[in-house]
Design the sequence.
């Protein structure tokens, strides 16, 4: 569905407009949110962030204007996720035990803007994941990018969680061989 | 393998591509999330302007506050004396967490219905104050003035915070009456041109917490010398821990847990700077303080006299603390502490949230501000200010 088709729905039915907007951009918003919140937020926090983003977009979007939806939604998602990350980091900073293994990592985690973005490596990684074929590629992405557990992945892909675990283990082994010689190999 | 290591932080474009090629969430999960979005959008429509610009995590925080407060009232059985118990119970956090869990069913029902401000008790207001959350707003700016020494010393300030960029600023301007300087020795007063001239001088500190850098510009109208500035690593700065609002007079009162004060009176529906507030009148007879307050505890009025010295010298006297509390945020918007013939007063003149709030100065402004200033020491002169160019 195009942006103009989605926006046109706002005149007919606000709820249909909301739903179309949500269906079209849910994965996009989720991906941006999880990308920023990974490692610090629970799945409930990520869902909360996604809800927050869509509620803000619906409230603040100038329907009559010619705002391009994807950049607008992406910007809102990024800001909300960064805001939540800082909030979670601050709370963790207040409560975290000095014995926790994450204790020393907190300062670097807060420097979100300074994180190195290795697009070339991501490109390579995605290419190799794709070479795994379905459903293995989806299992790897859902597990390692979206941080979903085997049960959630099973529900999405119509598989049992045991089957997801088995396939995931095999897929990781295969991916390791495909990434041999790259920096990403060490992470598998 | 740790789940967050394989992908690390990918670019927005790559995240968008992953979302396109590998969409996530089954229908059940999507429906649940969409239902919650619709509920929040509808709630916003129903409340109209009242919640516009409010950070969306607020409902969760609000629920916790109402839960804790409502549960406390349920268990205490009565609002009378609740404030006293709360004030005496310095370990507030643990009991409220337990209580809110055990009464979840009750409180959930209450929070889904329309809030009824008339049901607020003094306990609720105290709980709100303690649950105030500056993190609930992406941007927040507060203009306020604080008067101490019974009106002889006045501080006009503006604290600004942008959670998104992490930058903050705090500007403080101090003025004094001639009375304030009367205890100085005659020689010093003469050197400065007399009491009236001293009182005419205005001292100003402009503090900028920009990225990892802290810069403070000191200016004083009593001197013709150029303004001075100081710069050092922000992590060494004490004015933003945990955020720039830690310097508010009200925060000192709260951190002291209103020690020794009991709620005597409460007035609802008080409008203050356009916000719906509740006024609490609290008193302390000072006896508890004498027995229990550890040295250095900031229960004494904030004066220029050493608190310990003042405390030992002053007779036990009744103090009255009047608080004006914002019902929505739990922020103290006005406070007046009266003791004998003296008083201290804190008043918020303007509070702005999110898109309405003032923003902290950017690097360009700070660079321009220190352009005509001199560094206050060699370390400042050598400090790397390249972050201001980023």
Sequence:
């Amino acid at each position: 569905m195009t942006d103009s088709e989605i926006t046109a729905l706002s005149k007919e039915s606000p709820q249909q407009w909301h739903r179309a907007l949500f269906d079209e951009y849910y994965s996009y918003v989720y991906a941006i949110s999880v990308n920023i919140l990974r490692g610090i937020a629970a799945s409930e926090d990520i869902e909360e962030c996604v809800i927050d983003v869509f509620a803000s977009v619906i409230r603040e979007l100038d329907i009559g204007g010619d705002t391009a939806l994807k950049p607008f939604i992406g910007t809102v998602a990024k800001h909300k996720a960064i805001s939540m990350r800082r909030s979670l980091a601050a709370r963790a900073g207040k409560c975290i035990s000095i014995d926790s293994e994450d204790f020393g990592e907190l300062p670097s985690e807060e420097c979100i803007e300074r994180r190195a973005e290795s697009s070339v490596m991501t490109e390579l990684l995605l290419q190799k994941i794709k070479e795994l074929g379905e459903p293995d590629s989806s299992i790897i992405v859902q597990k390692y990018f979206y941080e979903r557990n085997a049960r959630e992945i099973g529900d999405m892909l119509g598989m049992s969680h045991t089957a997801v675990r088995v396939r995931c283990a095999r897929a990781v082994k295969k991916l390791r061989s495909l990434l041999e010689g790259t920096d990403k190999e060490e992470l598998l | 393998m740790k789940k967050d290591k394989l992908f690390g932080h990918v670019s927005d474009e790559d995240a968008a591509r992953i979302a396109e090629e590998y969409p996530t969430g089954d229908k059940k999960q999507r429906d649940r999330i969409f239902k919650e979005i619709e509920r929040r959008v509808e709630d916003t429509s129903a409340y109209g302007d009242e919640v516009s610009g409010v950070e969306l995590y607020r409902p969760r925080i609000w629920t916790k506050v109402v839960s804790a407060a409502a549960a406390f009232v349920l268990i205490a059985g009565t609002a009378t004396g609740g404030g006293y118990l709360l004030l005496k119970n310095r370990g507030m956090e643990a009991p409220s967490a337990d209580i809110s869990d055990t009464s979840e069913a009750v409180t959930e029902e209450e929070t889904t219905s329309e809030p009824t401000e008339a049901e607020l008790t003094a306990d609720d207001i105290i709980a709100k104050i303690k649950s105030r959350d500056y993190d609930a707003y992406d941007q927040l700016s507060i203009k306020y003035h604080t008067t101490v020494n019974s009106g002889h010393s006045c501080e006009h300030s503006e604290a600004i915070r942008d959670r998104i960029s992490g930058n903050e600023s705090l500007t403080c301007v101090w003025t004094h009456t001639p009375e304030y300087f009367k205890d100085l020795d005659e020689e010093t007063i003469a050197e400065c041109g007399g009491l009236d001239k001293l009182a005419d001088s205005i001292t100003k500190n402009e503090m900028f917490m920009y990225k990892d850098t802290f810069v403070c510009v000191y200016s004083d109208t009593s001197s013709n010398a150029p303004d001075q500035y100081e710069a050092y690593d922000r992590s060494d700065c004490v004015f933003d821990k945990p955020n720039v609002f830690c310097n508010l007079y009200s925060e000192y009162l709260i951190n002291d847990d209103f020690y020794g004060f009991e709620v005597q009176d409460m007035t609802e529906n008080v409008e203050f700077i356009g916000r719906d507030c509740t006024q609490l009148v609290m008193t302390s007879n000072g006896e508890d303080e004498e027995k229990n307050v550890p040295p250095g505890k900031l229960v004494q009025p904030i004066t220029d006299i050493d608190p310990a010295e003042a405390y030992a010298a002053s007779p036990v006297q009744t103090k009255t603390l009047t608080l004006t509390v914002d019902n929505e945020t739990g922020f103290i918007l006005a406070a007046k502490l009266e003791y004998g013939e003296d008083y201290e007063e804190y008043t918020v003149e303007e509070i702005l949230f999110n898109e309405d709030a003032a923003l902290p100065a950017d690097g360009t402004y700070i660079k321009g501000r220190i352009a005509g200033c001199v560094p206050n020491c060699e370390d400042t002169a050598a400090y790397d200010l390249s972050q201001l160019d980023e």
Summary: Chain A has two domains: 3-113, 117-187. Residues 69-95 of chain A form the longest helix (27 residues). Chain A touches chain B through 64 residues (CB under 8 Å).
